Amino acid sequence: MSFSAVIFDFFGTLTPSVPTDVWDEHAARSAAPLGIPMRQWRQALDESFADRAVGALGDLTETIRALARSCGVDPDDETLAAAVAARRASQRELFVFREDAVDTLERLRGDGLRIGVLSDCTVELAEAWPSLAIAPLVDAVVLSCREGRRKPDPELFRQVAAQLGTPTGECLYVGDGGGSELSGASAQGMTAVMLRADDWAVNDAHAREDDWPGPFVSTLSEVVSAVRDPSLITR
């Protein structure tokens, strides 16, 4: 077994896991300008994730307006702008990487591997991507909100491999298991490895494959060793 590329999930993989109380606190910030109770706003965000993750509600301003109206509020421009700013700021706090993320990507690139990112995400990540520390280290990024489809849609896995110029059978896929991504990657011929980091259990993720029976690593740094010697991957 040999690999030409490594593809990473974003949230909970390259970034730390996000527990429920953090999502609640962030929801409260964007709910406040709108005058919407946090729980009602959090429910609106959760229930709209499937649409937001495929870009169906438009840009961030259009998204917040649509969700506010679903909660019975029709915000004026000033109120809407304040809610959008709060949402954008809180989301960008989540774009902080694990301590070994940048080093792992640099080491993989140094070994000659190509790097991809495949994420189920909303428009906030697409907006921020060019400014992120890992962006120059990534050869191909496929974001669900741009593509209009979510994991485990086979086309997403084929697309990121094609952008990397690598057959799917030569790709190692690393993720925390959200969105049925590991079985989705495996179905396209990739070798899928779960990242079960110390904070894995507290992650508030969508449709996570908690019962993943395949290989796993405990840190991103272990991915480098796994690529160099696949027999080191723990089952």
Characterize the biggest β-sheet.
6 strands, parallel
Count of DSSP H/I helices: 12
Q: What would the principal axes of the Cα set say about the shape?
A: elongated
Order of neighbouring strands in the sheet with most strands: 3-2-1-4-5-6
Head-to-tail CA distance between termini: 16 Å
> How many domains, in number, for the residues?
2
**Strand-pairing-aware structural class:** alpha/beta
Strand content: 5-15%
Helix-strand pattern, N to C? EHHHHHHHEHEHHEHEEH
Just give the CATH class of the largest domain: Alpha Beta
Question: What's the average pLDDT?
Answer: 94
The third-level CATH topology of the largest domain is Rossmann fold
Any low-confidence stretches, pLDDT <50, length ≥5?
A: none
Q: Output the radius of gyration.
A: 18 Å
CATH architectural designation of the largest domain: 3-Layer(aba) Sandwich
Could you name the CATH homologous superfamily of the largest domain?
HAD superfamily/HAD-like
Helix content: 40-55%
Total E-strand runs: 6
